[in-house]
Amino acid sequence: MTTVPEVFGSMVFSDAVMQEKLPKDTYKALKKTIQDGKSLQIGIATVVANAMKDWAVEKGATHFTHWFQPMTGITAEKHDSFIAPTGDGRAIMEFSGKELVKGEPDASSFPSGGLRATFEARGYTAWDPSSYAFIKDDTLCIPTVFCSYSGEVLDKKTPLLRSMEELNRQAMRILKLFGSSATRVTTTVGPEQEYFLIDKEMYKQRRDLVFTGRTLFGAKPPKGQEMEDHYFGTIKPRIAAFMKDLDQELWKLGILAKTEHNEVAPAQHELAPIFSTTNIAADHNQLTMELMKKVADRHGFACLLHEKPFAGVNGSGKHNNWSISTNTGVNLLEPGSSPHENAQFLLFLCAVIKAVDDYQDLLRLSVATAGNDHRLGANEAPPAIISMFLGDELTEILESIEHDDTYDSKEKSNMEIGVHILPKFPKDTTDRNRTSPFAFTGNKFEFRMLGSALSISGPNITLNTIVAESLSQYADELEAADDFQSALNKLIKRTIKKHKRIIFNGNNYSDEWVAEAKSRGLYNLKSTPEALPYFKSEKNIKLFTKHNIFSEAEIVSRCEIMLENYCKELHIEALTMLDIVRKDILPSVMNYVHKLSSTAAAKKSVLADVNCDVEKALISKLSELVSCLYHKTDKLEQTLLAAKDYESDAQKCSAYYHDSVFASMQEVRAIVDELETSTAKEFWPFPTYGDLLFSIL
Ligand code: ADP
Ligand code: MG
Fold this sequence. Notes:
Blueprint: H1 4-7, E1 12-13, H2 15-21, H3 24-36, H4 42-58, E2 63-67, E3 79-81, E4 83-85, E5 91-93, H5 97-101, E6 102-103, E7 123-127, E8 133-136, E9 139-148, H6 157-177, E10 185-199, H7 200-204, H8 207-212, H9 237-252, E11 257-262, E12 268-273, E13 276-277, H10 278-298, E14 301-304, E15 317-326, H11 339-358, H12 360-365, E16 388-389, H13 392-403, E17 406-407, E18 413-414, H14 427-430, E19 438-440, E20 445-451, H15 457-479, H16 484-499, H17 511-519, H18 528-531, H19 538-546, H20 552-606, H21 613-642, H22 650-678, H23 689-694
Parallel strand pairs: 2-9, 16-19
Antiparallel strand pairs: 1-8, 2-3, 4-5, 6-7, 7-9, 8-9, 10-12, 10-13, 10-14, 10-15, 11-12, 15-20, 17-18, 19-20
Helix pairs in contact: 3-4, 6-15, 9-10, 11-15, 11-16, 13-16, 15-16, 20-21, 20-22, 21-22
This protein binds adenosine-5'-diphosphate and magnesium ion.
Magnesium ion (MG) binds near residues 192, 319 and 446.
């Protein structure tokens, strides 16, 4: 029996392994390279590659791959074996420094949004030594960045690393002014991952799930989530076995899976890891999603990561818990225990408030996908409006600072920045409001709008960059000030006054909030086609280019890719719908109608005046619906064909898919769901919501 500490990280070429396997000089040089964010010298790379290969081969690996995160939002790998011929008919295992440092996958099949013509299809991958290599499926995986030969970024890791670096640079300017001894600041993330588990055999019978990840049809089951008996309920034995196995697999890869519980909807669950540095958290979340699917399959389940697999049932999200800490162990979003620390906390808090208000549009579009459109603004998820929850206590403090008022009715003390100690905010007093899209939870912010399938890179690139921008403006001002203390006071007050409209502690799900947010001038970007074009606004291009995260061309191309993805997803959904209606639903219901007719005819042959009212009523109702469905399906097909007219303009095309194709799909669905409720179970062509959601015992 192996213990958890023995299993944990056993498949990772971690710092401890490097220390053990590398010559001292090489280890030191590698560490320095990582710390300085420089690229690796070939001499060092050769030694590291060799040690890595020996370690991997010892663990049974036969192949290696550069593991990267192209714009598809999932990870990509191209496996090469270590094998090298010796010339005498034998083979040895080889892995060179060059192979470790740089790879050249054919990039032509990855989305580039027009950045790269196919004739110059080559891109290259380069090792990100700040993320450890690991073994997965007998393959040594080397986390890498992915660029085109002309230097354009083609992945999600590079801009994330850049945004972390930029936040570090700007935060360090501020910390210097406070006399901090820290030398480096990093952002940390703990992403909570929601998912559904359903029976694999039933999954296979639903082509909508197989092709699109969500059900395109399905009438409401008699029982939904109204009993609230699933949330934190007892975990069923089959699910518990899956979770245990998943934990083992994640621990081997050094992923700190910590808590698992049932979620609100039936068959829905959540996994939360212990937080880590943002780029590691992004890598680990990708691996977590991949392993969830793989382990589910082993246990006879299908794992659904789609944001809204079932209409009318809670969707799945991903809570992005985010904070900033120093290499001296200080969480900059934690109120401190001295007046000095509190002033610093307030400044960082203000930087986030200002950032979220100034760049609501960017935060919103960083989570915009076709799948997430079903969730945001629907009942259980945050609305599409960005606002921040700070809790009454902290809000009151900010108000008293803004107005130079006394704070705290009990103590009647005057809240002066840098003079008073802030009260501690225990987590439970700050985290009660679960409806906020962006909540302060005591020592971190929880961005709750992410969909479950999303790579966390995009939202974190955005968060890091917009907060870096606030900090850079603050640093410019404070560095130039004669009197730091009074400049700081002014700055904090000004921020609160100017940006307090973004703070909302009430119920974000209410209609009153939608109206109130409008009167405050906040954005309400309801759909992906509405939100994405803001990426290219002058203000946002200025932000990303100023901080060297994206060039203008890269922004335009990314925007294009995301809009195209939206269209493609809806296109596939519509085609799947047409296919299922024509090949499964219409024939099945017509079969049932035939059965009803022959039943009535048979009855009549025995008893001429027998009562056939039910058969007649059903035949009539179903025939009407079938005819209606037939025409609506044709209409959907025509609508879909007309999308071709917009092919040259991704923005218009996405709006068309949203306004016309999706609307037409809704009409088809409504009829099918009605047919389902009137058709005998044995004639219905695939498992129903009730089957899918309540079959696991
Ligand atoms: P919830 O009540 O929303 O389930 P938890 O308190 O269990 O939240 O924590 C949620 C996540 O927040 C966990 O993944 C945890 O590791 C993460 N977290 C805690 N502190 C930090 C931090 N300083 N930075 C980033 N994430 C953090
Ligand atoms: Mg949470």
